[in-house]
Sequence to fold (413 residues):
Amino acid sequence: MSERMNPAKAPTPEQYAAFLDGELAPPAAAAVEAWLAAHPADAAEVEGQRRVLRLVQDHPPPDPAPEAWGAALARVHDRLHPAASPPRGRRLYWLAAGVAAAAVAAALLARALWPAAPPAPAPAPAALDEPFIIATDDDVRIIRMEFVGLDAEAEARRVLAGRPPVPGELTLPGQAEVTVIRMTGHPDEDGRTPVLGEGEVPMIMPPLFAAKPKDH
Amino acid sequence: MAAVTAPCPPASSDEQLLRCYAAGQRAALDELFRRYRQPAYRVAYRLLGHEADALDAVQEGFVKALSRLESFQGRSSFKTWLLRVVSNAALDLGRQRGRREALSLDAPLAGDEADGRLLTPDDAARGLEREDLRAVLDRALAALSAAQRQTFVLHADAGLSYREVAEATGVSIGTVMSRLFYARQKLRAYLGERTTL
Fold:
């Protein structure tokens, strides 16, 4: 950090952070020290933050038992190489929970996308799992979440992002709240695949799949 | 990745271990796990406040990191890549499980406000107080935004540099510094009311 600082001006939050972490170059650090010497309230804040850091680092989380490490590693092996060992209880639980959550997510998503369509018969849960994973948690960055309202047009512009929630409520962000980084299309049962809309914010356009023929 | 047939010695670099793993040597995973399980666990624990959940996040992180090695292009270290995936997994798990009820900001602590005495860092010499102090820390961290919490623990608990935290969280170094300042400011305010900080 080689940034110089005008001592007549208060350090920025970034400069305070770098000062505390010893990342400021000596001239900039000296300027911060000079400011703190003349401003006791700011000095108290910086000293308080230093103590916070020490307190956190002096109280690390308790380490798990050695057998817990072994069990975690065994589960990693199991999941990366599933043919090598049968599923364990915890995996079966999450598999069941995932299938159930996918079924709930699918029903809510279908209602949001085609509000006027007659209710479809519930498909087999196992078939719903894959098509609704249109992005993983690593692929989606939610910048802002706002309640839009319950009108049909707004609902149609929502898209499921992330994993189907297991115990929580289903959250559907709007168009301006999602940046699509990568998308792999999964055709639905009619062979339709998702399309990316154009515009400032790339987005899966409503309806989610390419145009559905109208009844009249 | 190039195929590696010779066994990887434990002292291999992360890159060598990853090549060994990609070539089918599962023992390389054992060494990577041993090497990074603790920082990964500490980050996950700080984000979730619960041992079993933290272990689940560590497990999830290792699985995702190693099953998506094609996404890891070596622009950052494996540790940074792994901690990015683990911390994202922990935040995701936290959202799904709503952080354990044990971290409810409303629930009283055994030795906290109940006897009207503030906890001190010196209380760490006594077991129960140390646990309470840790619980207060957990709650203070829970009061931060997810972005501030992730930035703070990656820096303070995992020891990542500003640049590494920026790579792990996908923001600029300036944003990392800013988040660290405001996270510490909020922690100080929270802990100042409950400890003799």
Notes: Helices of chain B lie at 14-22, 27-48, 51-67, 78-97, 127-142, 146-156, 162-169, 173-194. The radius of gyration of chain B is 19 Å. Residues 101-116 of chain B have pLDDT under 50 and may be disordered.
